[in-house]
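re: ur question from yesterday

yeah so i grabbed the chain u mentioned. its 512 aa long if i counted rite. heres the sequnce exactly as i have it in my notes:
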Amino acid sequence: MKCWQSYRLLNPFMTRSHPLRSLLLGLLLAPSMGVILPRIGLSPALAETRSRPTVPFNLSAPSNSSAPSTVLARSTPAPVIPPLDIPQLKASLDREDLAAAINQVEVGWKAQYEAFYEGKLSSQLLSLEQIQTRLQQLTPRTQTKTALLYAIPLPDRLDIILVPPQGRPIHRSIPAATLKARNQIGAQFRLGVVNPLSEPQEYLPAAQQLYQWLIEPVAEDLKQQEIDTILFCLGTGLRGLPLAALHDGKQYLIEKYNLGVIPAFNLLDHRPNNLQGLQVLAMGSAKFSQAPPLPAVPIELQSVTQSVGKGKQLLNEDFTLANLQKARSQQPFGIVHIATHAVISAHSAQDSYLQLWDQPLRLTDIRELNLRVPVVQLLVLSACQTAIGAPNAELGFAGLAVQSGAKATIASLWSVDDTATLLLMRHFYGQLKQAPIKSSALRQAQITLLKSGIQRRSASNQTLNQTLSFSSPIASRAGDQPLSLATLPTLEQTDFSHPYYWAAFTVIGNPW
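ran it thru and got these structure tokens back, copy pasting raw so excuse formatting
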């Protein structure tokens, strides 16, 4: 049961304006927010204790499986992530040598991802001119215009470099966005958006401040260049931000642009995709022996295959690595959808995993899925949970596509309500049939959920707290309610406008 559901059960008549709400909600949220708490002023001793990562589940095979029980135990120390050469990078930025600065962050960030994943990543080192040439070539082929945005966090400031398909790159420096300020605002933002009961005033100020730092300095340039797709290449502390929920005071960022996150442009497979007509391999598990059940998984897989029109399902005991590899050898599924517990640890890739039916698959071993040959155009992880705010976990999240071998991954930063996930995925796969690129399909699905509460609220004086339906047949990612597609609530019956329901989902890797 989700902690906010516990909160409602403790006092179903308590509104969000009740004076005890903040204290009670804080106590309920605290155990699951240990990674963020050190960033908002805990004492050093407590911060060290709270930030020490733990594996959330005993990762054993389901109790009705004949597979032996296995536990994912920490076997190695946390990897040492090499820092960038800050003096050299600042010197390049200060003299406006943007080609050198981009080269330094591309090489440095690649080394950080290799350290986290404990292996070399294949890449090609493109110059600034070559990067812009690639962006130019993609414009007619994708029917979109993409700009690359580097956000380079330094201790005393934040530097933004916007690389458009044509023209000179734009460099902006934001002295107010110091490390301390970024950590404080980032923590406030995350705490607000991951709690579906939070009021807009609890997360919008931070969302607007982050927009002022990351987007506003180049907003006019984006408009003049007629950019519709932003590809973010982000440094430490920024990689785990739910960028879709940044706000300009009137609109969320997702209402204005298609969005994507990449580890480095040189690690990206730049070739555009054609997802229309591809078959989907939909896999997952609804039952676990020592992890919370995911009762919506069977109808999620059914919904995905129905939306795509062509595909195969592997559910529960059929959801094994051997069966996945066998299915891929028989049919080169271009889309792989996985609905199971997936955790990206704050510690290392060794402690991060996908839970298959009979075993946990470490993030370092995810290449065993064999998604590179033949290449999987899109890997979707619909129940991914990331230790948000932790630098190592950010590397794990933003590097998912490169490590898996898929050209792109769609994953969630936190575990999202089941009803919202199902509806978003149905709209996403429906949009794939007509959207020019997959980041556009995800954007349209997110906007659909964002707009879901407008008509309902305008027709009623009920508050968001009253319109949220926790008694619906699908209440959360973990539960045991009977589920079916026939009982899935419609958007007219629900209000999923809060960022918690849609902002977690992110395109990682190739957004086209």
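noticed a couple things. The longest strand covers residues 146-154. also The chain has two domains: 90-267, 280-451+497-509.
anyway ttyl
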